[in-house]
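Reminder: ligand-aware prediction takes two inputs, not one.
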Amino acid sequence: MYKILTLNNISPKGLSRFPLDHYEVSSEMREPDAVVVRSFKMHDMALADTVKAIGRAGAGVNNIPVEAMTAQGVVVFNAPGANANAVKELVLAGILLAARHICAAWDYTRGLAGTDAELNKQVEEGKKKFAGFELPGRTLGVLGLGAIGVKVANAARALGMNVLGYDPHMTVDRAWQLDSGVQQAAGIDDLLARSDMVTFHVPLNDATRHLIRADRLRIMKPGAVLLNFAREGIVDEAAVVEALNQGHLRTYVCDFPSNTLQGHPKVIALPHLGASTQEAEENCAIMVADQIRDYLENGNIRHSVNFPDMSLPRAGSSRLTVINSNRPDMVGQISHVLGQNSINIVHMVNESRNGVAYNLIDVEGNLDGEAARGIAAIDGVLKVRVL
Ligand SMILES: NC(=O)c1ccc[n+]([C@@H]2O[C@H](COP(=O)([O-])OP(=O)(O)OC[C@H]3O[C@@H](n4cnc5c(N)ncnc54)[C@H](O)[C@@H]3O)[C@@H](O)[C@H]2O)c1
Ligand SMILES: O=C(O)CC[C@@H](O)C(=O)O
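Here is what comes back for the chain with nicotinamide-adenine-dinucleotide:
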């Protein structure tokens, strides 16, 4: 039986991909083989050394200690693109909320009282405070053209906006998906300086922490709107509040409430709703459940953020998977132990990433016992499994 620990509410459709005759799935599991998580912060969590994989039912992995997991030979998966449409739709809503002052206007109407005639009078008097702007001809800057950024850029083009994009690591696949009318900015500062509204869709990491800070906010056009549906730590919130107070920024729309932002009249903060649709929750959970299953049962790796992707059809009588530190002569030592135990290699693939290497080895021969123990004893080997 494989054991799966869930750390957040995970879509039952996704969890049903773990067949009950081979899997136990629970939010309370002492020695799990794998963990399925959404936003639960795992950095301070003690993890049993039975854990072989962590599946993030979403995109961002900043709640997972990925580096430490890599050093322990734990494969971390995510669900690239599985919630991108949900986030895109909320970003579009955010653009419209800001452009038309919808939240403030709604608050205004909810506070009205009197007869219908009195309400009508107050409506006609009050509405001039909430006059907004239309989107065609306005420029949206999209920083980060990955799964979400490309969808947002294309949707904004369809709404008649000029779109400026910037992503120094954009993939060829994403470039193919991008509307040809999206203009390339020369860099972050160029994008900020030329946009009426800026949205960013980059991961939170050391390179992007406080990417949007006071000096960058000053570059933005007076009256610009900033949208953050990526992560709280990407903006310096104190600097954003200062820019709002000075009237330099018109509105900050985000998915990450905090005490610094709470109650600010120019902030629209949503409770981390980007991926909260039935469709996205199912897509993410199904994707990571399938990836974890294939890894636990076959050693195949798809969509890992810390290990090389590697999938092979099964061959031979059994399969050996070995995770080792990426240093010279590891493959030689592994195949030497197999040879000593009269085990013939049918198929072997080795790839490395982030200082670790992964080996998928299909063999003919008896792998239990001596051979597996011999490989596990090689200095630098982190994990050995016989499947
Ligand atoms: N609000 C939510 O609920 C929600 C939902 C999904 C994702 N997210 C956040 O959005 C982020 C992006 O998600 P995605 O699915 O588009 O991921 P993705 O990996 O498909 O795209 C991220 C893009 O950012 C680019 N990038 C990285 N550093 C950059 C930099 N310094 N400047 C410009 N571009 C840079 C990468 O090249 C990549 O193309 C996630 O990491 C997550 O933090 C939030
Ligand atoms: O699971 C969620 O609700 C949020 C997920 C989102 O932040 C992500 O990075 O995919």
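The first strand starts at residue 2 and ends at 6. Residues 312-387 form a domain with the Alpha-Beta Plaits fold (CATH 3.30.70.260). We will return to this case in the review session.
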